[in-house]
Structure prediction request, 211 residues.
Amino acid sequence: MNKLIPALLLVVVVALAYVVFSTGGVPTKDEALRFVQEDLASKYPGALQDIISAEKDGNNWNIKARVTFDAGTPCPTRLHAEYRYPEFGYVVREEWITRGEKLGDCSVCVGLTADKCLIFFEEEAVIASHTRIGSEEVSRYVLAHPDAVPTATFFGEDNGYAPILPSESEPIPQVYYNVWLVTWHSASDSSVLDVLLTKEQGRIVKVWTPA
Prediction:
């Protein structure tokens, strides 16, 4: 019996050491986010950056960030940067959403069938608003207003959008769901042009100048 006591104590010590050393090096969420944010600023200077998600997986944090170059222009470039910290440290996996002005490709859904074209992000909506079929008026506006700045807002299943058009006289405007509203504004002549397009297929629904 006496011989078992040292052996049991050794097992307990080893178990405690494992717990201490296996958990002591796990960063907190704030530490992991700070690391990623500092690395993003270093890797993508001048780009718009924000964290999309941060999930703990064992001793690591899986963090996804959004990086946008040329935000507020007709051809923004968006990528998602994915980290597994601290296991992979500074190694980042990049997923390009739009290639935009930075990579010389201002287009979306090219080469895709209609059912495969989905507009998930505001950068995609901005590009689609002046490049998809039916956007000729928008394209002319953008060319005539080099200072025009776009903003994109999504309206889903629960918060549809009912555009009020100057030429419409219906007392109850039609409500659209799962659509993007892209508003182009030029400070040079205070003009505004609105574009409504679908999330699925990126189809231009309406183009109008607000009243």
In short: The beta strands are 48-57, 60-69, 77-85, 93-98, 149-155, 179-186, 191-198, 204-208. The chain has two domains: 1-106, 112-208. Helices lie at 4-24, 29-43, 122-131, 136-144. The radius of gyration is 25 Å.
